[in-house]
């Protein structure tokens, strides 16, 4: 248990610690006093206590919940050997095992692994690899990237450059990032409706979009890439679901077209699965919705089950071989904590849990549960859309969310959420029960109704 009360923690935090996208004078009105399973034990400055289902999976990472005995054991066992060693000139078993598991689990053809500190760093590595690849192949002028409006890829400099330059969170930093090229957001897609059904039936649903809108977008893609092919190193996308850019689901046909056009013009395809990977959208990886294999592939967040920061960049042998034959021969990046043994050991255990506990059944159950539990929100005057894809549920409002008020109203209903913009959403842990999902749905609907009507 913490040695300080919630009130003490909150008071000493204020003015001392920055929190994500928040002022120093207080964006942490709640303190975590404990966490177990899918629940957080929270307290506020007034001494109130809340037991709440974590509907956010700690920003989409804690898919197996808190105090998971398998992950705890993996962490402690590795700590009994060594916690960290440099990866320069050395290797170790947790890194080798994790790389082998990632190659086996990801789309066929991704055969080489770079272990990074965080999701944002894995995107940085992917961008650098694409530029190195083009230069090594005699195309040193191909240094630009083509990304999607509405996209989000991280907070470091290179990653900021391929986030949405206007509506994203990084518009103030244009002087720090290289100017890139952007395509319009692909057309929105919806799940084909199915009532009940087996796990296979639920997870084999299609994403449907307007064919005319898809054709028009693909034509824009083809024209843009053809016009800029001489300067483009790669196309960068979040596959099918854009996360922090608006929890927006788009047509898989657009991702398939990006794969085709990239190949035709000697441009690489980078797929950012940091938020979507490891089953979150109903496929093990969201690029499977379009049946594509990218040249470069990034994963993170759920990789360690939310225990430690770790991400990975994978690439094909075609890309890796060009780097190996180049004068440098190396991918020019090397974090101090690259392949941290503790993180790698926990990641191995987390990936094994995904398979052994049947992520398909877990996500299928969550998708069906969220579809029913969030449906009443459509009757609210302030709500313009409710959508569910895999273990992702979104309630979209016609106005910006009053974040403090909605957060508090949900917490009083036993649910922890973190809304943004005009969205109140959930990405719950995979171990959530039907009762947990019902609580989340009722908490979100009730909070939105109370605050916004």
UniProtKB/TrEMBL annotation:
The keyword Transferase applies. It comes from the Bacteria. It holds the Pfam family Aminotran_3. Homodimer. PANTHER family: ADENOSYLMETHIONINE-8-AMINO-7-OXONONANOATE AMINOTRANSFERASE. Belongs to the class-III pyridoxal-phosphate-dependent aminotransferase family. BioA subfamily. This is Adenosylmethionine-8-amino-7-oxononanoate aminotransferase. The lineage of its organism: Bacteria, Bacillati, Actinomycetota, Actinomycetes, Micrococcales.
